[in-house]
Amino acid sequence: MTKTRLFYTAITILCIVCSIASLYIQNLYLLRVFILAAITAILALSVNILVGYTGQISLGHAGFFGIGAYMVGILNVNYHISFWLCMVIAVLFSGLMGLILGLPTTKLKGHFLGIATLGFGVIVNGVLNNWMQVTGGPQGIRDIESPTLFTIPLEYGNFFLGFIVACLSLLVLVIYLLIKSPIGRAWSCLKQDEITAYVTGIHVYRYKLLAFTISGSIAGFAGSLFAGYMTFISPDTFDLNQSISIITTVILGGSGTIAGPLLGTALLAFLNEWLRNFDELRLVIYGIILVAVIVFIPEGIYPFFKNKVISIFSKRKKASQPNTSIEPHAGKDAVNE
Amino acid sequence: MTELIQIIVNGMANGALYALIALGLTLIYGVMNLSNFAQGEFAMIGAFGTYYFMQMHMNYLMAMILSLIVAGLIGFVIHILAFHPLRKSEPLNMMLSSLGVSVLLVNLSQYLFSPNPKVVSNSFSEDSIQAFGVFLSQQRILIVIVSLILCGFTYWLLERSKFGRSVRAASLDPDTATLYGIPTNRIAFITFVFGVALTGIAGGLTAPIYNVYPTMGISLTLKAFVVVVLGGMGNIPGAIMGGFIVGLIESFSAGYVSTAFQDVIVFSALFLVLIIKPEGILSKVQGEKV
């Protein structure tokens, strides 16, 4: 136990150091990149609950992101409700939307689920773009109040970054606890095989709904943070490309792990900034890298390197032992046929 | 009354186009188990091909044939690089790979051809027929005719020919098909190129009606997916019917509600179908294998 305890202590200290260190970053450009990356990381974690732990697909997560951001924008600007109350309402409301989306879609699987969630994203984007009276249409909403936390004004990038890193760390903890709880075990069971889960007595439908609700509310939380940081929101941020880039982040990093989406976010944020050197070819190269990574490392970057490291160490230790592991695909095929 | 007929006629013309794109999509889905999000991009390639070949003073028909060949060739290369290596991998990975291909193709064409819309005009697009007070451009009639012919041809190919039998076998159960000596990998190749070329034709057909620009494929992909889900995955008559349904919903919502909410209404209809009958309107119910 001491080893794992040491590990957790190290991670906690790392999070605290990160939060404090963020107060001393002077470069405004860097601050912006870090804050947006942290928001993307929260989104990636929320998609990971669906894709990685429950075995569902969401191609419309920008919808939840947008709902969260617009809830804050509309309530704050039109009704002058304080930012924190708006945030709570936004999180609850996007969770509710997750539940509502889940009601019909939890009965779907695979490609159908993908297309249905994609439809959700398109519908939300269409409503944001065209419901002029409430959402302001393509012009979006301006002048959202910057939040103040215990008299600390978060409109300064440093404070906001510190706050958001703290939020991210807390969220990672919460998700970790959730995954280790009976709920997480039920999720991983129904990810492996729904029928088996059903036979075991897991209420598959309810657990999937729960996953949609939690995932939606976390994405809404990311949206409300985004609204608080940018103070200006418009529908372009919450389009199909956003949904796609969120799920790409998760898959590239490695779905079903906590470190995977975080690593994916960090790599893609870095890649995006680095590719700015290429101007117009930026997204072309992005597309090529995306395809290349999926073709060569389909399981994701984090599990790939983790397995590499493990295999290097285990080779030294167990060089004499015969290899008894069975290739997973061989067994799976034999069972299915 | 004439307004209603006009709306129906326009909807049918668009529907035929969606059916053609969805046909390629549903074929590829059936054989490769791939939701190809880059499908609309091949329509874009077909449209750009038609534009540039017509710039070289070829006639419309010649330009379309050449651009369908170009779309097929690009599809071939993409299949080798992006999809063939993933054939044993999870469907989700293939789907993401197709998303990457879509990003790549859209932005490459933006880089090469500039984002400005281009106008293709042929002899069909200027003339229109007027009957019972309804206007219909010859191009739209051409779209309906070509789409129906191609759908019919594909249906015949799948149901009656030897090649079609092996395609159906490969889509039912690739492993068993391989045991019976059917080259499933080659079938997947041919199906992908064929499906993509069909979409290329669809792109060439839309070019004179709508402008040609790099992001034109994205909305076509979305529509084609709605069509495929409505009609049932891997179901050709379903795809044709779904195409007409989507086209009609779209033109009715444009005519009576608003053009802005067109996509919202189409996708809401999709949700409705998914809630009531998740297997698609025309498909037979299949039990799940345990």
Keywords:
heterodimer, A: 337 residues, mainly alpha, two-stranded antiparallel ribbon, 75% helix, globular, disordered C terminus, B: 290 residues, 12 helices, 2 strands, 3% strand, transmembrane (chain B), membrane (chain B), amino-acid transport (chain B)
Notes on the protein architecture:
The complex is a heterodimer of chains A (337) and B (290). Chain A has a domain at 22-239. Chain A has 15 helices and two strands. Chain A is mostly helical and 337 residues long. In chain A, α4 packs antiparallel against α10 (204-230). The relative contact order of chain A is 0.16. Chain B has 290 residues and is mainly α. Chain B has one domain (2-276): ABC transporter involved in vitamin B12 uptake, BtuC (Orthogonal Bundle). Chain B has twelve helices and two strands, in the order αααααββααααααα. Chain B has helices at residues 2-32, 39-55, 60-83, 91-113, 123-126, 138-160, 162-172, 174-179, 184-206, 216-231, 236-257, 262-276; strands spanning 128-131, 134-137. Chain B has a two-stranded antiparallel ribbon. In chain B, a hairpin with a 2-residue loop joins β1 (128-131) and β2 (134-137). In chain B, 52% of the residues are buried. At the A-B interface, α5, α11 and α13 of A face α4, α10 and α12 of B.
